[in-house]
Every structure is written in C-alpha cells, then in structure tokens.
Design a protein that fits this description.
The complex is a heterodimer.
Chain A lengths: L3 E2 L5 E4 L4 E7 L7 E6 L6 E6 L3 E5 L2 E6 L4 E6 L8 E10 L5 E3 L5 E6 L1
Parallel strand pairs in A: 2-11
Antiparallel strand pairs in A: 1-3, 3-8, 4-5, 4-9, 6-7, 7-8, 9-10, 9-11
Chain B lengths: L3 E4 L2 E4 L5 E7 L5 E7 L5 E8 L2 E5 L6 E7 L2 E6 L8 E8 L6 E2 L3 E5 L1
Chain lengths: 114, 111
C-alpha cells in the first residue's frame, strides 16, 4: 500500500464548477496535512493545511479531513483556468527524530476547461 | 530576498561525471531537504538535515552525498552520474513543524 494515494487524473472540470480532489494516507499517526499546487515547470507551493477533523475554508479552497477514514480532500469552488495544475496531497509522518517529515502523493492533475 | 535558492537552475552533463547542486535558505529554518521529482512527477524525499545533522536518509544510491556546512546550506554531490539520475531536484526548508518551502528546482539532464 502506498503511503499516500491520489488519483493521477487528469481531472477535467468546467470553469466555474467545483473541483474535488481526494487523497488517502496510510499512517494513522499523521497529524498535519498539506495541499500543495504545482504548475508545470515550477516548484510546489502551499495552498492549504489542516490539522483537525472537519472542514477548513480559505477563500475558494476548502480542505476536509477525516482521520478515522484516513482521508483528506480539497475542494476548489468557482474553478478558474489558473487553477489548472497538479495538486499534491502531503501528510506528515513521524521520522527518525522528534520532527516529522512530509510525505507527498503523486499528485492529481487538474484541468479547468473554459 | 529569495527564501530558498538553488544553483544551478539547469545542469546538462554526461554519464560518469560528478556534479554538485547548492541550496541556501534565509528563513532561519532548522531543517532542510532534498527531493527528486522524476518524469512522472512523483516527489520523492532523499535526505534531510536538521541543524547540520543528517536525520533522514532514504533508499538512495551512495553516489549521492549531501553536505550541510551550516543550517542555512545543504548541498548535494552526485558521483558517476547515470541516465536514471535525470530529474528535477528540489531543495526545501521547514521549521520544526509546519509547511515546507521549496526552492525553484534544478533540472538535471544526463546524456
């Protein structure tokens, strides 16, 4: 079982619709969950993070976390062509030291069609 | 005032050569990382240093050797380069707990 699983896509969504990106993770000890966006040829950049079960909203983005199901998702409302990118799910995992490490999924490629 | 910088941005070299990539962060973070992103876009952690101490060493060929002269710098030296080493290498830094900040990446092409 992969540590982080995401549908690779591409996920095609019409402009203005809601894009839903899903992720499951294997480490029950994961405490923090990050969503990164990566445009082609660029480095990953943080979109949102979530620590507690439930929903967390930031502008057009909503992160949802269900630790019992080991599931985290990202919703993008009113999708724009500029949202077309690869979205990386990244839970933390306890590492060799007291600090945790971030494990990245393989990403879901999102395409917003005008 | 770039937070995490890497040099060079592009590196084209022949098989068998030795090359180095440098990384510097001015965020004051204690932990730095090297990641490899292959053609399938999978971002795989390679190494991590915390205050100059190696804390993560994933299954990476020993041709790859990281070096951290101080907590603001983490360099990656690669010996005897192979075709399969072609990828984008990202440096990142992170406070003890929190998000990671990535450098712009170094695209390595081995011919």
């Amino acid at each position: 079982q992969k540590e982080v699983e995401q549908n690779s896509g591409p996920l095609s969504v019409p402009e203005g619709a809601i894009a839903s990106l899903n992720c499951t993770y294997s480490d029950r000890g994961s405490q923090s969950f990050f969503w990164y966006r990566q445009y082609s040829g660029k480095s990953p950049e943080l979109i949102m993070f979530i620590y507690s079960n439930g929903d967390k909203e930031d502008g057009r983005f909503t992160a949802q976390l269900n630790k019992a199901s080991q599931y985290v998702s990202l919703l993008i409302r009113d999708s724009q062509p500029s949202d077309s990118a690869t979205y990386l799910c990244a839970p933390t995992k306890r590492g060799y030291s007291s600090a945790s490490k971030i494990i990245f999924g393989s990403g879901t490629r999102l395409s917003i069609r005008p | 005032d770039t937070a995490v910088s890497q040099t060079p941005k592009y590196l084209v070299t022949q098989m068998g050569n030795d090359k180095s990539i440098k990384c510097e962060q001015n965020l004051g973070h204690d932990t730095m990382y090297w990641y490899k992103q292959d053609s399938k876009k999978f971002l795989k952690i390679m190494f991590s240093y915390n205050n100059k101490e190696l804390i993560i060493n994933e299954t990476v060929p020993n041709r790859f050797s990281p070096k951290s002269p101080d907590k603001a710098h983490l360099n990656l030296h690669i010996n005897s380069l192979e075709l399969g080493d072609s990828a984008v290498y990202f440096c990142a830094s992170r406070p003890t707990e929190g998000e990671q900040y990535f450098g712009p990446g170094t695209r390595l092409t081995v011919t």
